[in-house]
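yo

u said u wanted the structure for the complex thing, so here. seqs first:
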Amino acid sequence: MTKDIKIAIIGVGGVGKAFISQLASYIQRNQSTLSISVVYIARSSTALISKDYSPLPLTAFVPEKLDAAGVPPLSVPDLIKFLKDCGSEAILIDNTSSIELASQYPEFLKSGIHIATPNKKGFSSEESLWNDIFAAAGNSGGSGGYVFHESTVGAGLPVISTIKDLIDTGDEVTKIEGVFSGTLSYLFNQFAPAGGNEAPRAFSEVVKVAKDAGYTEPDPRDDLNGMDVARKLTILARLSGLSIASPTSFPVQSLIPKPLESASSAQEFMTNLPNYDADMGQLAEEAKKEGKVIRFVGSLDVASKSLKVGLEKLDASHPIAALKGSDNIVAFYTKRYGDRALVVQGAGAGGDLTAMGVLADVIKIIARIK
Amino acid sequence: MTKDIKIAIIGVGGVGKAFISQLASYIQRNQSTLSISVVYIARSSTALISKDYSPLPLTAFVPEKLDAAGVPPLSVPDLIKFLKDCGSEAILIDNTSSIELASQYPEFLKSGIHIATPNKKGFSSEESLWNDIFAAAGNSGGSGGYVFHESTVGAGLPVISTIKDLIDTGDEVTKIEGVFSGTLSYLFNQFAPAGGNEAPRAFSEVVKVAKDAGYTEPDPRDDLNGMDVARKLTILARLSGLSIASPTSFPVQSLIPKPLESASSAQEFMTNLPNYDADMGQLAEEAKKEGKVIRFVGSLDVASKSLKVGLEKLDASHPIAALKGSDNIVAFYTKRYGDRALVVQGAGAGGDLTAMGVLADVIKIIARIK
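structre next:
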């Protein structure tokens, strides 16, 4: 008895490529019980479409294949029709960060198509989209496809699944705090290491090294504006039962110096960032005099319905201060766990680790498919 | 469309009572989509049986009800027949620590009955039992019922589910280390706190306080012999792909002084334990001189196929040394995560937190039921 499953993949960047590679191995390992065919692979401009639903070859897949043999991607209605007509269960993998695609999740779900995605946009934008997604989804009382999004927070770390288990079993989240950005974790662990006695480095220098190593977005302002953290906190808050209008409906501290918000390019931004090193240096020095370090923290408090994203001064002995590398940390405080948090910690970024979370979601969907 | 599910519960101790209370709330919250009936509640001597499969009342359940209205429990074959004949999907909840019941899991599974349990015995005893369970289980390639056992390690903490997601997605565990006993965590966090400068307390005194507070087993030797940790490590090693003959097939350090192993009662043991305080005190002092603390650690290394359970000296800055209260910590080192571990930390014992893990497993089984 083999289960027959068709998969459509959109997005072939770092996460998309890693996902396709992991999926190919998974299909190989499970071919005796599962018949999985990837029937559609697309990026914004081109697509590979298997019109007869035979499996597209995944081994040694490179995105360039899309350019060579690709045709224009299907429109969302056409893709939904294509998947609905496949004669078996279908899963959409959204490995993009597109709000346009995410805003169509309810349509996919209503058509019985399942979704696994690391794309935060569907779950952290306007509340109406969140409501529409979970009204339709089969794993939240709806009659549509299942939707899983573990990698929207902390990549493959068990964050979303943990909070869901807590809530589903009747526990109540009281507070969550943590470091939710691998990039900002790295920047501050380098800039202001706990117990560090080296001469302080310029913040702009740390950003430059990280950018050159590919640890930041192409334009580091996309990390420094705090919006990535705000989106993740929005998702955790909504899962905790809070009504959050949007990721801009609560205080989010941006680390971009005001005058540089309008810099016309990443390069112009990087050129001028050293002019503001004194400000960040002073914050770090002040903290150090109190035996503390600065970290970029997200936190939510359910009772007061407050969310906060920004720099905080923390004791050098605080678990967040002890983070290393680009690790994330998430501390869940709940009614059952009381004063001692349930803590999940580890690398929370990177193509392979993000793809792993998506694949784990796919496996959960397959387990639920009749 | 409501799913119809029958549940049998064996064991009404601390975990069993908490589970019944949580399950009653869960049934209430989900009555629009699920029709769950508990049809059997038993402890070793007595049982409540709903012969017509109508739901037994769960609200304000107390184990004394079993004595008042109880009849002798069904034999395992009779229980299997009773559940098979129920006309819908059935789940066995084993809230005991009985090896006799656990050794029958394969029979339950082969009959299509699902199992959720915190009972370590089925997964940490002879390897043949492990193999029989997973050969039969529907979630590991078999054609039988599903089996979930999150609470066998770290109570409700996401430990088993995390390692399963890692392995299922193609990652490879290289090393696991941690503190797996809430009781031993508490004892050493009290006896040798990191950074503590108080006059050292006698180990026997710490054990006594813990015993009086109900933090240890009725006979503390059942904690101090290290077997609980050895069983948990056996489970994690097997999930990591290692072949482990039994929990006594690798080095396990017992903290019971040799001459007291044969003490005829817990009381006799407690009376004589102070005679051995000097030994433990010396170990702690030696560690302290090196800037370290002693902790009771379990670790496994996949490459060398080695497992180890016992006291270790750890730097005061080590995450394990920084544990508080009775917290567990599990650090997973894998191929994908590289040098930086994926860490799960938090309270890993207690009726409510253990029951939570069992209920989360039940919810996962229900999600997979057609």
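Chain B is about 40% helix and 20% strand. The first strand of chain B starts at residue 3 and ends at 10.
cya
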